[in-house]
Design brief:
- The chain is α+β, with helices and mostly antiparallel strands.
- It folds into 2 domains: 155 residues, no CATH class; 65 residues, no CATH class.
- 21% of the residues lie in helices and 27% in strands.
- A 5-stranded antiparallel sheet has the order 3-7-6-5-4. Strands 8-11-10-9 form a 4-stranded antiparallel sheet, covered by helices on one side. A two-stranded antiparallel ribbon has the order 1-2.
- β1 and β2 form a beta hairpin.
- The longest helix has 12 residues.
Length: 240
């Protein structure tokens, strides 16, 4: 049975375009579990979303279709690319590729990038982003250089119980102010730029407004800082 937590650590070996082993590979990092943190600090005031948790929160793996795909792939010409093989598979199901991209090509806060593709029924006339009958294939980057080292495709559908899309295009964090010692109105005015949904790079806006980070106060999802205006605040990573 396919799992997002296994996919983010799939051993994809060495890719032709790898720039050197000193960059490390995602699959060499410790395993990611369901009880692992969903978000964590990456560097100073930048934070990341665990890719495995992000995918699990927004997509349901279609195990029956996944099994069919794996059996189909095993019978195909080894000279085909993964995408060519996926196209052949979905064509047999009456589906076409409506959109395809790599999250690397847009701003996001994911811990690992991925190649995604949305497959819609051939006769569909709905916008592919919202098509209820669409399937989404996810290939997580687990290697070194972004140009190679992608895990095996996982076939899934967007979850019905949340307001989500057929593609991973909303992978952003924000930062909430949970304590203020200073001018509350002034802090709330600049903190608007740190909110999830206001910007696709809230960490950048936050960093520009902060003079000092008190490292000894850092927890898994909070840290105390001093703004450029001298106000003391405690911020928390916001992920919905």
């Amino acid at each position: 049975m396919a799992s997002f937590f296994e996919a983010v650590r799939e051993n994809t070996g060495r890719a032709l375009c790898d720039s050197g082993d000193h960059y490390g590979r995602h699959y060499e990092n410790p395993p990611v579990f369901e009880n692992s943190p969903k978000t964590f600090w990456n560097d100073d005031l930048y934070a990341l979303i665990s890719t495995a948790h992000y995918l699990k929160d927004r997509f349901d793996i279609q195990n029956e279709m996944q099994t069919e795909w794996e059996a189909f792939e095993a019978l195909q010409d080894s000279g085909m690319t993964t995408h060519e093989c996926l196209m052949e598979f979905f064509i047999t199901k009456g589906y076409v590729c409506a959109a395809r991209d790599n999250t690397y090509n847009s701003e996001n806060d994911l811990s690992q990038d991925m190649v995604w593709c949305v497959w819609v029924p051939r006769e569909s006339n709905r916008e592919w982003l919202y098509e209820d009958e669409a399937y989404t294939t996810i290939e997580v980057h687990t290697g070194c250089d972004i140009r190679g080292g992608y895990a095996s495709p996982i076939i899934c559908k967007k979850r019905d119980n949340i307001d989500s899309y057929n593609a991973p295009i909303d992978a952003h964090l924000g930062f909430d102010v949970v304590e203020i010692r200073g001018d509350k109105a002034r802090v709330e005015d600049i903190a608007e730029y740190w909110q999830q949904g206001y910007s696709s790079c809230s960490g950048y806006h936050l960093e520009q407004d902060i003079k000092r980070v008190f490292e000894w106060t850092r927890t898994q999802d909070t840290v105390c800082c001093q703004t450029n205006d001298g106000d003391l605040i405690k911020i928390q990573i916001a992920y919905y």
